[in-house]
């Protein structure tokens, strides 16, 4: 009868099962390897994504502190790191977003808190000072100007990216 | 500075600039009061971490001084005095404690103790919690900066 055509022999059955199982095992081993090999290409460059920080309307010519959060991965913890930026507009309307991290030893600088030196950024730790554009005042501990955030404006919102060091003043 | 490998390496290079130690004093208990101490300790930790973030270049946040709440007070005071002396010998000109244990507000070191009132953090809204920590940290920061100017 035609039954014979469709009957699977023991040999065939074993062949099918072994190829099937073997194939899965091989795939199971190869997939992670390929994934590892191509991972650097697939991954977005860390830190390129920008975070919405403020409405452009809120920005005045007086530096104002905005707090925001960025995702960071520290060993095995993934957490949100609080960050701040001092943001203001120049007379020409250009937006400046400065990192508040003192270039000396990493304290957080404040705007206009030192009575003897108004309209400067002031570091409470070792009395480092920076002018409004972030340039370090010579004779105070910091040796470099404050970092500037990369920024973009989209739909009336200010987005900040990475803080980049500026050339020595 | 925090008690991490990276920060300690920086500390060793820049010792002259880092002259202030902040030591959390954390009571531990089981049974009665456990939750309150845990909550208080949590808040102390958050505030201390925020202050450290802002004053990183001068303040060294040390690992906590931990004790059981019912340890004899005299022994604790002695142990803390020993820690204090060691830190002073290491060049810490300014030394402050932050705690949720009211008992430290009496005694020799009382004027160097920053007391954090215990609030039930676990039943608090996330945004309110942030605000609370930020405000408390700002107060402690003002206290520290004020003392730097005085001492």
From TrEMBL, chain A:
Transmembrane segments: 12-34
GO molecular function: 2 iron, 2 sulfur cluster binding; metal ion binding; monooxygenase activity; oxidoreductase activity, acting on paired donors, with incorporation or reduction of molecular oxygen
SUPFAM superfamilies named in the record: ISP domain
Keywords tagged on the record: 2Fe-2S, Disulfide bond, Electron transport, Iron, Iron-sulfur, Membrane, Metal-binding, Oxidoreductase, Transmembrane, Transmembrane helix, Transport
InterPro entries in alphabetical order: Rieske_2Fe-2S (IPR017941), Rieske_2Fe-2S_sf (IPR036922), Rieske_Fe-S_prot (IPR014349), TAT_signal (IPR006311)
Pfam families, A to Z: Rieske (PF00355)
Residue ranges constituting the Rieske domain according to the UniProt record: 87-160
Keyword Iron: yes
Family membership: Belongs to the Rieske iron-sulfur protein family.
Protein's job: Component of the menaquinol:cytochrome c reductase complex. The Rieske protein is a high potential 2Fe-2S protein.
SUBUNIT field: The main subunits of the menaquinol:cytochrome c complex are a Rieske-type iron-sulfur protein (QcrA), a cytochrome b (QcrB) and a cytochrome c (QcrC).
Protein name, per record: Menaquinol:cytochrome c reductase iron-sulfur subunit
Organism: Geobacillus proteiniphilus
Lineage of producing organism: Bacteria, Bacillati, Bacillota, Bacilli, Bacillales
UniProtKB/TrEMBL annotation, chain B:
InterPro entries: DUF2487
Pfam families the UniProt entry points to: DUF2487 (PF10673)
Highest taxon above the source species: Bacteria
Protein's UniProt name: YpiF family protein
Organism: Geobacillus proteiniphilus
Source lineage: Bacteria, Bacillati, Bacillota, Bacilli, Bacillales
